[in-house]
Amino acid sequence: MFKFSIHRVISLALALVLALVLVASFGNLGGATAAGETDLGNAIAIQNANTGSLMAIDGVIGTGVGRGGGGGHVILALTTDAGVRGIPGAVGDVIVRPTATGNW
């Protein structure tokens, strides 16, 4: 029979929880899981290459990168309100998701 101290059981449980959180947070850094989503590095590169053209659209006040519904990454077009027009649905092969943030 194995004997475990309560301290060891708690330590193992915390390590397991931490491992699960890390896998959930970073499990998809290597590739997209849905069409139009991509890995983090590619999303940042495409965001950087297209920030100027996105910022030229009236009402776009910033850009960012966020998680898509499929677990990959998308480009965020941060806008003054939800009604901003002229934002492309994608740049390159990556989805652009308008995100109303209001004026900062």
Quick structural overview:
It is elongated, with a radius of gyration of 20 Å.
What does this protein structure show overall?
The structure is a single chain. The protein is α+β, with helices and mostly antiparallel strands and 104 residues long. The protein has a domain at 31-100: GMP Synthetase, Chain A, domain 3 (2-Layer Sandwich). The protein is built from two helices and four strands, in the order ααββββ. It has helices at residues 6-26, 40-55; strands at 60-67, 73-79, 90-91, 94-100. Strands 1-2-4-3 form a four-stranded mixed β-sheet. A hairpin with a 2-residue loop joins β3 and β4 (94-100).
Number of helices: 2
What share of residues are in beta strands? 15-25%
Residue share in helices?
Answer: 25-40%
The first-to-last residue Cα distance is 62 Å
Mean pLDDT: 82
Give the SSE layout.
Elements: H1 6-26, H2 40-55, E1 60-67, E2 73-79, E3 90-91, E4 94-100
Parallel strand pairs: 2-4
Antiparallel strand pairs: 1-2, 3-4
